[in-house]
Design brief:
The protein has 408 residues and is of the alpha/beta class. The protein has helices at 2-19, 50-67, 85-93, 113-123, 138-142, 155-166, 178-181, 184-200, 217-236, 247-260, 276-280, 291-304, 318-334, 343-352; strands at residues 42-47, 72-76, 101-109, 128-134, 147-151, 171-176, 203-208, 240-244, 311-313, 359-365, 372-381, 384-386, 391-392. It has a seven-stranded mixed β-sheet, with helices on both faces. Helix 2 links the parallel strand 1 and strand 2. The longest helix is centred in the middle third of the chain and has 20 residues, at 217-236. It is globular, with a radius of gyration of 21 Å. The protein starts with a helix and ends in a 16-residue tail after the last strand.
Length: 408
């Protein structure tokens, strides 16, 4: 039924676009529209490749499948984007050569995106430049982009701890390494988590694991997690919840928690595909791209492994919904149906590709100055706890205390 509703909604949107003919929105991009938008405008989406960012790419493909290749242009940046910044810039900025392109979405906004947006704006100020999950400093990319949306490292830091408390956890274990903790997003989130633990009476613990980019590599880092989890469970007890900042650590952490006990609220960038298939030995080839089917299969395996009520996720991949959702938001804005910097309108677009799951967020606040940005948003999806049956925690309706937004 959810899939039928989503399809009907897409059809209605497509009809609305067709009906608009040559009419155009009269506002500027900063006001939430383009003065030359018509039924012929195109949207460009730039993502990583399938080998590096499969969910991001699949979301772009889903949006293109909904509106057609004549309306949606896809591109990818290099896998080794850190060493090929100039190529990344060219890939993004090159889309502006098509006069019908009226919006460009980049997810993830890897290094080079800010410069690409600046070059685009110099030539084509009419193009909406939208960044998803920026790797560059948020204030920096916010100076060039019309809209930036990252995962909400502030609110989630509070809400993950609140969820752990509601599930009866007594301890919280944060696993990371120095390189990650040097990032503002991760260090601020850890500070928020520690502060929230104090509020909810949960003991906060920090554990350091090897960086997968170091000499030990991914295999060595994962071996360390496999070895240490039984020791951690013995130390912190089976009522402890665990969180790791690195994707490579997630699968071995989950695998051992299923065997030895413990809780896992959600991953750093949550998805039913993050860590669970490998930890549970699942083949999801037949379910590829169908997140309702993916979640159902993962949830069944979690229950069978004795993890009901202890393991959570976002029901729909963050990367998938960000690519498709931001492109949908751009289309809504260009079509005069949404305001570019309205959080409710952003959430509405994301929800087209995540039926049944709610989204929320807020403007990014500079922890030093306390100033809230008007074009940078931190977003999050409701946490889903897998069980028989599973259930949403209602996290998107919880009001995060204002003090946490300047915690650092």
């Amino acid at each position: 039924m959810k899939r039928v509703i989503s399809t009907l909604l897409a059809a209605v949107m497509l009809l609305a676009l067709t009906a608009c003919g040559g009419n155009s929105a009269e506002s500027t991009p900063s006001d939430g529209g383009s003065d030359s938008a018509s039924d012929t405008f195109k949207i460009g989406i730039v993502t990583g490749t399938v080998s590096q960012s499969e969910d991001d790419r699949r979301g772009a493909e889903a949006f293109q499948a909904m509106y057609g290749e004549d309306r949606v242009v896809l591109a990818t940046y290099p896998d080794n984007f850190t060493d090929e910044v100039e190529t990344t810039i060219q890939k993004i900025a090159g889309l502006a050569d098509d006069p019908d392109i009226k919006a460009i979405v980049v997810n993830q906004a890897v290094p080079g995106t800010t410069e690409a947006f600046r070059q685009i704006k110099e030539r084509r100020p009419d193009i909406l430049c939208i960044a998803g999950e920026s790797h560059e400093d948020l204030p920096e990319i916010g100076s060039a982009a019309d809209l930036v949306c990252n995962n909400d490292f502030v609110a989630r830091g509070y809400l993950i701890i609140r969820t752990a408390h509601e599930l009866g956890c007594t301890d919280f274990v944060h696993i990371s390494f120095p390189r990650h903790m040097a990032y503002e997003t991760m260090s601020r989130r850890a500070a928020v988590m520690q502060k929230a633990c104090e509020e909810f009476g949960i003991a906060f613990h920090q554990e350091t694991a090897p960086d997968p980019t170091s000499d030990v590599g991914i295999a060595g880092a994962q071996a360390y997690i496999l070895e240490k989890v039984p020791e951690w469970v013995q130390t912190y007890g089976e009522k402890a919840a665990y969180f790791c900042t690195n994707d490579a650590h997630t699968e071995p952490l989950l695998k051992q928690l299923f065997q030895y006990g413990g809780y896992f609220i959600e991953a750093d960038l949550p998805s039913p595909l993050m860590g669970y298939p490998g930890a549970l030995g699942l083949d999801l080839t037949e379910e590829a791209g169908d997140f309702e089917a993916i979640l159902a299969k993962v949830e069944d395996a979690v229950v069978e492994a004795g993890g009901a009520g202890r393991f959570g996720t976002w029901a729909y991949s963050y990367g998938y919904t960000t690519s498709a959702g931001l492109a949908q938001h751009a289309m809504n804005v260009l079509n005069g149906e949404s305001d570019l910097t309205d959080m409710d309108d952003i959430a509405k677009a994301y929800e087209v590709f995540s039926p049944g799951a709610e989204w929320n967020g807020s403007g990014y606040t500079n922890a030093t100055t306390g100033v809230k940005s008007d074009n940078i948003f931190l977003v999050y999806q409701d946490t889903y706890i897998m069980g028989d049956p599973g259930y949403y925690m209602g996290s998107t309706s919880v009001e995060v205390p204002e003090e946490y937004f300047t915690t650092a």
